Amino acid sequence: MTQPVRILLVDDHLLAREGVKELLENQKEFVIVGEAANGIQAIEKTKELLPDLVLMDISMPKMNGLDATKAIKQQFPNIKVVMMTVSYDITDWFEALKRGAQGYLLKNLNTDDLLNGLKAYSLDEIPMSKEMAFRIWKEFKKDGQAEESLSARELEVLQLVAKGHSNKEISNSLNISENTVKTHMKNILGKLQLENRVQLASYAYNNGIV
Fold first, then answer.
1. Ordered per-residue pLDDT tens for the chain, 210 residues
2. I need a surface site. Which of 18, 70, 156, 169 has the fewest CB within 10 A?
3. Which residues of 18-55 are buried (b: 16+ CB within 10 A; e: fewer)?
4. Are 36 and 127 in contact (CB under 8 A)?
5. CATH topology of domain 5-123
6. pTM assigned to the model
């Protein structure tokens, strides 16, 4: 049986945390292992609990979610961070991704959309429209990024990442191990000077790779 995704819930509003807990309590895919009310607590709890995923608010006292995300990703790059906020500001979207967040969910999403988004991020999928990918790509575009530096296999992996495939799905599709997929991912990110799967998807869409 697949183990549930262990979530650290970070929000300075108790009612907001209670709402998320109520939403997830009957979802066998997730278990909330801890809570924090600000960015400083989020870092401390992450060190203590080593969750699979941190569900992080942006606006909080003492330390905001963006700064906490950067600190967590620097120390624990394999722990996923998904921002959950009321903000529609696209600059918050970009800033969160720059600091290493895997995704961004709005608190006012309906229950099904919120759960589906959380499930997708936990599986390393990318629930994002092509329009959003283009906007992100424009923000992250850097000189010197060129797919010519990628091997044929790395291009195949990149194409599947851009289509929202998880590492396991890529492994099955290309008949290679998940560890090999992870190695390819690390090499691709390094060659293109990108940080995460969302940026990779944006790059692929807007350079005609998919």
1. 478 889 999 998 888 888 888 888 888 888 899 999 999 999 999 999 999 999 998 888 889 988 999 899 888 888 889 888 776 666 777 777 778 887 777 777 677 777 887 887 777 666 554 555 555 555 555 444 445 577 888 888 888 888 878 888 889 989 999 889 888 888 888 778 777 777 777 777 766 666
2. 18
3. eebeeebeeeeebebbbbbbbbbbbbebbeebebbbbb
4. no
5. Rossmann fold (3.40.50)
6. 0.63
